[in-house]
Write a structure and sequence with these properties.
Distance between the termini: 126 Å
Number of domains: 1
Strand content: under 5%
Order of helices and strands: HHHHH
Structural class: mainly alpha
Radius of gyration: 42 Å
Number of strands: 0
Number of helices: 5
Largest sheet: none
Shape: elongated
Amino acid sequence: MADRARLDQPREVRRSFRSRREPDPERFGRFAETFARFMGTARFLTYMTIFIVIWLAWNSPYGPDRGRWDDYPFIFLTLILSLQASYAAPLILLAQNRQEARDRVTQEHDRESNAQSHADMEFLAREVASLRLGLGEVATRDFLRSELRNLLADLDQKSDDDKD
């Protein structure tokens, strides 16, 4: 009792069997995507076809009399398939909504990236145009060579005039 009254000492941490973590809100969404992905595979269609063929063969009039669980013309099979469809449809819609949200974020990112690329290209085009204008005022190599040739020719002419 004296230890509990002391405020300068930390309390002992109690461990519980239950986890105190917050539930992951994306967990069910990931499950729905995994389920929808599986339902769209050939493996699922194969399993479902095998299940239905076995059901039909076992419960048909030509199947065994004992152990038949669907006495009426496949009413229970229809009920099971309807139940599966009633769960599969919302899960598939949830997976599609999550994919649509991801696509929307990707499109927004692409739109921003395209706008930035467009702005960069416009900037570079302006820079190239200003460089072209600036180069129009700068002496080129050919221009300097021709000027040097003219000066050399003038010097040769002056030296010839001085010799005369």
